[in-house]
Design a protein that fits this description.
about 170 residues; mainly alpha; 4 helices; elongated
């Protein structure tokens, strides 16, 4: 029974990490394809990609909370030593915080800029302050997503290391 619980635990932990990181890796490909296919209509492409980003963030928050809870319980279940789960838990908290920041601060600010620029950001003059701010936030959003991906990869490495340091 204990072996099955450990197997279930690891399966859920790895699945949560795979779902989040897989989506983070796949998202830029989907975004680039969407903008490529809808090239003349970047407003529609942006709306689609924005919605997909919201879905990605929802998946990330659920996956992150599952992984964080499992790692928090792992030492009590005798799966990992307490010191080996601390670093991956800190990284997961940083990933979750970055996702929350992007979802609830950056994206709404970009939406306000888009509306202030007249609805379609590409139709606004390049010198329009709302467009300039939107593009700055867009670059910032890309940086945040890249940071989440790198933190996730580091988390996977640390969880693998925790496997080698079992109690």
């Amino acid at each position: 029974m204990l072996v099955r619980m450990k197997t279930l635990f690891r399966t859920l932990l790895y699945l949560a990490l795979m779902v989040w990181l897989g989506a983070e890796i796949f998202f830029p490909i989907v975004a680039a394809t969407t903008f490529g296919v809808l090239q003349p209509n970047t407003h529609t492409a942006g709306a689609i990609v924005g919605q997909l980003l919201r879905i990605l963030h929802g998946m990330g928050l659920v996956s992150g909370m599952v992984a964080l809870a499992l790692l928090a319980l792992a030492p009590a279940w005798g799966l990992y030593k307490p010191r080996t789960v601390l670093a991956p838990m800190i990284l997961l908290i940083a990933m979750i915080a970055s996702t929350v920041y992007s979802q609830f601060a950056v994206i709404p600010a970009m939406e306000l800029d888009r509306i202030a620029a007249g609805g379609a950001i590409d139709a606004a003059d390049a010198a329009n302050p709302s467009r300039i701010h939107f593009e700055k936030l867009h670059k910032h959003s890309e940086f945040v997503e890249e940071a989440i991906l790198l933190l996730g990869l580091a988390t996977v490495v640390l969880v693998a290391w925790a496997e080698t340091e079992k109690s």
